[in-house]
Amino acid sequence: MKNLITTLFLLFLIACSQQDTDETMITNEEMENSELPLTEEVNIENTLAEEENHKLEFVLDRETVTLNTENIPILKEFLSVISDHQQALADMSLENLDTEGLYLLSFNCNETTCSYLLLDRNEPNRTYLLDDLVLIKEIIPSPERNHLIFLYKQYDAEYFTLFNVEDWKVLHPQPELTDIKEIIEATWQDDETIDITYHINDNQEAHQQTISLFAENTIENEDK
What we know:
This protein has four helices and 15 strands. With about 220 residues, the protein is an alpha+beta fold.
């Protein structure tokens, strides 16, 4: 399945370069009745008619969000090759990231991992495949909400990525941290500086790395 998602990602890049449409991939409607039951769980309503219309509807807290899969190539391709459509739809979830116009779609899920697609309502049809067959532990926005830290778990290791919302790309500050057993905490000092506290093995000795997004080297590296 990981090879499937990698292949879909390449198709997605090609489709994005060819796509020229004014249709919107995301539409949302605020709930008119504020007394409707609210839940932290995401409910998905996918009828046969909605599938035939290439649209998926998610009911979130105080809003209903509709995704037009015709304008999300990687999701369209995924649904076209998956054998069990109903299970694939049931396993999907959508999260409002509380950062203006950004949503996180989880799909291709199994018991412990999913693939994750970042969706931007502000820019028509802009998406980003963050990773596949992983678990996102936490998403931490910067104070100005123009950067995001994603904390991942994959098998018996953990890692993080830094995402620039304005430029719509993953950043690669140096040095890269490798062989992380567990990320204890990630915090923003300001919009350009991050503290990462982590374990590199099972002896529970904590290490801390302070990273500047716009510097070639870290500002500080110390053990706690």
